[in-house]
């Protein structure tokens, strides 16, 4: 997902990818896509709560991870039309 998000940021997304969809990807059914979005929202919320409990050590790397989690939950929309 990270690589796809980075490619999408640079535009010309559809010219840069050759989608290979595995049978168990579950990307065609809206319910399955919603489960994926919910999963990443949950991961993001849990990480954010854990950050609030911890100190400031290594927080920069954790914030980067949190941003990735949020992007995974929010960004799949443009990718759906590619498949």
Describe the 3D structure.
This protein has 83 residues and is mainly alpha-helical. The chain contains 5 helices and no strands. The chain has helices spanning 2-9, 13-16, 30-53, 59-74, 76-80. The radius of gyration is 15 Å and the shape is flat. The protein starts with a helix and ends with a helix.
Summarize the structure.
By secondary structure, the protein is mainly α. The chain has five helices and no strands.
Choose one word for the global shape.
flat
- Strand percentage: under 5%
What pattern of helices and strands is seen along the backbone?
A: HHHHH
Distance between the termini: 14 Å
Largest sheet: none
Structural class designation: mainly alpha
- Radius of gyration, CA atoms, in whole angstroms: 15 Å
Number of helices: 5
- Helix fraction, binned, reads 55-70%
Q: Strand tally, please?
A: 0
Mean pLDDT: 75
Low-pLDDT parts are: none
How are the SSEs placed, and which strands pair?
Layout: H1 2-9, H2 13-16, H3 30-53, H4 59-74, H5 76-80
Helix pairs in contact: 3-4
Q: What tags apply to this protein structure?
A:
83 residues, mainly alpha, 5 helices
